[in-house]
Amino acid sequence: MQELNEVYTQTAEPRVLEASRRLARAVVESVQFQKYEQANQRLRRDATAQQLLFEYQQAQQKFQMRQSWGGVSGQAANRIVELQEQVFSNSILKDYFQAQEDLVQMLMELNALLNENLGFDFASLAKPAGGCC
Amino acid sequence: MDIRLKLAAEEFARHLNSSQPVKEFHSAKEIFDHRPEIMQLRQEFTTRAQEFRRKQADHTLTQEDINEMMALQRRLNSHPITARYAEAQQAMVMMLQDCNMAMSEVLGFDFAATAAPAASC
């Protein structure tokens, strides 16, 4: 999930903002969001799964940096595969990733529905401007 | 999709569509897309830009070509129809960002950044 960008100035009418919040509350009450929250809480309570996820993310980051410099060793590639296997055989992480994927899929469908009604891509226009990649 | 979610999305879209920034955006876009004077200028820009890229690839680009291209771009950007469209889009985007922030505060993560299609660089 993408973190919140805190800085903004308010230009929308109150009724539009209230409709935004009602939509967000409907998302919170959805099955996908509830499952994600539960999976997230289980992950937060399990130190082993958290450590494994941290190691995997660190290794992935290093691997991507080395890849962009063209210096990936067979050992580094093997380490990624090994960690990936451990991550996906961990039931807490597996559930967490699945719940996250389901939620993101639902949010993308929701955005597609908004786009149909609006005639433009809501999320692409509303997301905070950021650097490329 | 959950019916409550669908109804809330449709209600949100209705509020957006009846807001001044979205109405002004659609009106400005309609003119930008269909008014002959701007269509002609945009077509000229597209043709020149293709020619510009071809010359760039062929290494036959001259300073005159660059100056002409920049002048045409200035003409297009400063045309009142383009300016109105750009301003309308900017105002609408600011409002959409407010809505996204209101949603994201409830959700605890950035809705738009999560739901947007993956962008290419």
Give keywords.
heterodimer; A: 133 residues; 6 helices; extended; B: 121 residues; mainly alpha; 0% strand
Number of helices of chain B: 6
Q: What is the overall silhouette of chain B?
A: elongated
Q: What are the segments of chain B in which pLDDT stays under 50 over at least 5 consecutive residues?
A: none
Largest sheet of chain A: none
Helix content of chain B: over 70%
Number of strands of chain A: 0
The stretches of 5 or more residues of chain A where confidence is low (pLDDT under 50) are none
- How does the overall form of chain A come out from the CA principal axes? extended
- How many helices of chain A? 6
Strand percentage of chain A lies at: under 5%
First-to-last CA distance of chain A: 16 Å
Structural class label of chain A: mainly alpha
Estimated structural class of chain B: mainly alpha
- What fraction, in percent, of the residue positions of chain A are helical? over 70%
Question: What do the pLDDT scores of chain A average to?
Answer: 86
Topology order of chain B in helix (H) and strand (E) letters: HHHHHH
Mean pLDDT of chain B: 92
Architecture overview:
- The complex is a heterodimer of chains A (133) and B (121).
- In chain A, helix 3 packs antiparallel against helix 4.
- Chain A is extended and about 55 Å long.
- Chain A is 77% helix and 0% strand.
- Chain A has 133 residues and is mainly alpha-helical.
- By secondary structure, chain B is an all-alpha fold.
- The radius of gyration of chain B is 20 Å and the shape is elongated.
- Chain B starts with a helix and ends in a 6-residue tail after the last helix.
- The mean pLDDT of chain B is 92.
- The interface between A and B is large, with 52 and 50 residues.
